[in-house]
């Protein structure tokens, strides 16, 4: 089943073209990484998928329904870019942050009941933050915070997770562990994952598919296909190719 279908999408901010002729299909069970340079339209694409921006051209469907008529948002969990200036004294615990995700699926009056906390515990267990339950969110490291926000996105048991640069503020070792956690969520729980990343050299080894954006779709396919593609050489150069692709690099041993 295709969860996301994007057909010939263009988005403009006034006279500025942010995206042009984007077509992309994401099926149930995919783990897709979207990479590209700054200003390439990655976050704009996410906003369009979430119906936060009007399309200049084209269409987007979620679960077979035009995004403009889509209402089952509880099927989608979203992890936005996290502020790097989160104050250490921000008065919310990990459990409270995760529980706040339940409210998005409730109608008025939005209240959290005792029975809802079984969902909170399950989400925290899935991402490994139960031991942080009573800590203030501002006291945590960048990697711990991202796991908490991932748990919040998962608390309503969505089918699809969208993550906007979830590893931007964390160190390389923690970043790799976060990617592994996402892969486990994808393989063990069957969640479809789409994330934006600048970390082409690592995310490609975890994601099942890779999309390279530069206002238009440069490439979409498997990571090993990307490593063998002329687009890879054109954008990164033959020497950078070896660093990014490693064992997937078709030129390994020749550089």
Q: What does this protein structure show overall?
A:
The structure is a single chain. The chain has 255 residues and is an alpha/beta fold. The protein has one domain: P-loop containing nucleotide triphosphate hydrolases (Rossmann fold, 3-Layer(aba) Sandwich). It is built from 9 helices and 10 strands. The protein has helices spanning 42-49, 94-100, 117-127, 142-154, 172-189, 200-203, 223-227, 230-236, 238-245, and strands at residues 2-13, 16-27, 31-35, 57-62, 65-66, 76-79, 160-164, 192-196, 209-213, 217-221. The protein has a 6-stranded mixed β-sheet, with helices on both faces. Helix 2 (94-100) packs parallel to helix 4 (142-154), helix 3 (117-127) crosses helix 4 (142-154) and helix 8 (230-236) crosses helix 9. The chain starts with a strand and ends in a 10-residue tail after the last helix. Mean pLDDT is 87; it is low at 250-255.
């Amino acid at each position: 089943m295709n969860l996301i279908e994007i057909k010939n999408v263009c988005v403009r901010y006034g006279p500025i073209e942010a995206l042009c002729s984007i077509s992309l299909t994401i099926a149930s069970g995919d783990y897709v990484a979207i990479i590209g340079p700054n200003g390439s339209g990655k976050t704009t694409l996410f906003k369009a998928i979430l119906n936060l921006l009007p399309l200049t051209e084209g269409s987007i469907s979620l679960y077979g329904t035009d995004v403009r008529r889509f209402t089952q948002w509880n099927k989608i969990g979203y992890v936005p870019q996290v502020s790097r200036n989160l104050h250490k004294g921000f008065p919310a615990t990990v459990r409270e942050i995760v529980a706040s995700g339940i409210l998005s699926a409730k109608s008025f009056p939005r209240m959290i009941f005792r029975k809802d906390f079984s969902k909170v515990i399950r989400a925290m267990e899935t991402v490994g933050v139960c031991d942080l339950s009573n800590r203030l969110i501002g006291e945590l490291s960048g990697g711990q915070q991202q796991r908490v926000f991932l748990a919040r996105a998962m608390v309503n048991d969505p089918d699809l997770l969208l993550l906007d640069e979830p590893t931007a503020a964390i160190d390389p070792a923690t970043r790799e562990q976060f990617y592994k956690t996402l892969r486990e969520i994808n393989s063990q729980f069957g969640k479809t994952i789409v994330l934006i990343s600048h970390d082409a050299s690592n995310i490609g080894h975890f994601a099942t598919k890779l999309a390279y954006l530069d206002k238009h779709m440069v490439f979409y396919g498997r990571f090993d296909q990307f490593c063998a593609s002329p687009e890879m050489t054109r954008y990164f150069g033959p020497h950078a190719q070896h660093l990014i692709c490693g064992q997937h690099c078709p030129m390994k041993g020749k550089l």
